[in-house]
Design brief:
Hypothetical protein af1432, 2 domains, 17 helices, globular, binds fe (ii) ion
Length: 279
C-alpha cells in the first residue's frame, strides 16, 4: 500500500455529492423524541418535492389506506411519522445510491437494493431486541456500504491484487485494506463524517465488518453488522459482497441464535416484497 494512493482515495471523498438535502433535514427529526406533527409540517411546508414524496408513499399500496391522503397532517396522523419519514429518507437517498459500481460488479440499483434490505433487517432487529436508539441504527444500516461509491474506482484498479488476496483466504474487506490502505467501511465512515452525521452513525458504518473493534455504543454497530449478514443472505450483492457469517461474539452479545436469523431473513424478504410498491 502506498501513502499517495491513500491520499488520493481520501481526497476522492470530496467528489461525492453532499448528503441529499431532504435526507439531511429529516435525520435530526427522526432521532428527536420531541418531534411532533407540527414540527414535521414546518419542515415540509417549504419543500414541495419532499411533501410530494411523502404523499406518494402514504397513498401507495404499501400502506393500503382505504381513503386518499391529501395532506401531510393527515398522513402523519393516519400512519405515524417515524415510518413515513424513514421511507421518505430512503427514497431521497436512492439517486446517490442507485449508480452502478463496476469495481464491485454491482449493476445499477444493486447497491441500493442491498442497502434497503439491510435497513429493513436492521428494523427487524431493533424491534426484536428493543434497542432504544433505533433511528440511528436504521440510518447507519441504510448507509453502511456508501463507501463503495468512493472506493469502486480504486478497487477496479487493484482488482487483480485484491482477488489474489481473496483467493488466499482473506475476506474482501481485509483484502481492500491490504491493497488500498483502507476498506469501504473505513471510507464510508469518513464520508459520513464529512456529511457531519453523528459519531455513533460514523462508528457503526466504520465497524460493520469489524464489530469487535467497538468500544462504545456497541448495539448500534452490532445490529448493523448482523443486518448486513441477513441482507447478504437475501441478495447477491456483487463482488466481495457475500457477507461473511455474523460474528459469534456479536450474536452472543445480542442474544441471537441461528433460528432467529432465519426467521428475520424470512420476514425481511416479505417486507422487501411489500416495499417494492413504494421504492
Ligand atoms: Fe460492507
Ligand atoms: Fe453490505
Amino acid at each position: 500500500m502506498d501513502e499517495k494512493k491513500l491520499e488520493d482515495i481520501v481526497g476522492r471523498i470530496r467528489s461525492v455529492p453532499a448528503m441529499p438535502a431532504t435526507a439531511a433535514r429529516l435525520l435530526p427529526l427522526l432521532s428527536d423524541p420531541a418531534a411532533d406533527t407540527r414540527r414535521i409540517e414546518d419542515v415540509l411546508r417549504y419543500d414541495p418535492g419532499l411533501t410530494a414524496d411523502l404523499l406518494k408513499i402514504a397513498n401507495s399500496a404499501y400502506f393500503g389506506l382505504p381513503t386518499r391522503v391529501g395532506s401531510v397532517r393527515q398522513a402523519v396522523m393516519l400512519l405515524g411519522w417515524k415510518r413515513l419519514l424513514q421511507l421518505v429518507m430512503t427514497l431521497s437517498l436512492s439517486g446517490l445510491m442507485k449508480q452502478p459500481l463496476p469495481g464491485y460488479d454491482l449493476p445499477r440499483g444493486a447497491l441500493w437494493r442491498h442497502s434497503v434490505a439491510v435497513s429493513v433487517a436492521a428494523d427487524r432487529l431493533i424491534a426484536r431486541l428493543k434497542i432504544p436508539d433505533g433511528d440511528a441504527v436504521f440510518t447507519a444500516a441504510l448507509l453502511h456500504d456508501v463507501g463503495k461509491i468512493v472506493l469502486a474506482h480504486f478497487v477496479r484498479e487493484e482488482l487483480g491484487r485484491i482477488e489474489a488476496l481473496v483467493a488466499k483466504g482473506l475476506s474482501f474487506d481485509v483484502a481492500e485494506t491490504v491493497a488500498l490502505g483502507v476498506n469501504h467501511a473505513g471510507i464510508g465512515g469518513k464520508l459520513l463524517e464529512a456529511w457531519s452525521l453523528p459519531p455513533r452513525l460514523v462508528e457503526a458504518v466504520r465497524l460493520h465488518h469489524d464489530p469487535e473493534g467497538c468500544v462504545r455504543d456497541c448495539p448500534v454497530s452490532d445490529v448493523v453488522h448482523v443486518a448486513n449478514a441477513i441482507g447478504g443472505r437475501l441478495d447477491l450483492p456483487g463482488r466481495g459482497g457475500a457477507a461473511p457469517e455474523p460474528s459469534p461474539e456479536v450474536l452472543d452479545r445480542l442474544g441471537l441464535e441461528e433460528k432467529d436469523l432465519e426467521e428475520m431473513t424470512l420476514s425481511t424478504r416479505r417486507e422487501l416484497e411489500r416495499l417494492s410498491e413504494v421504492l
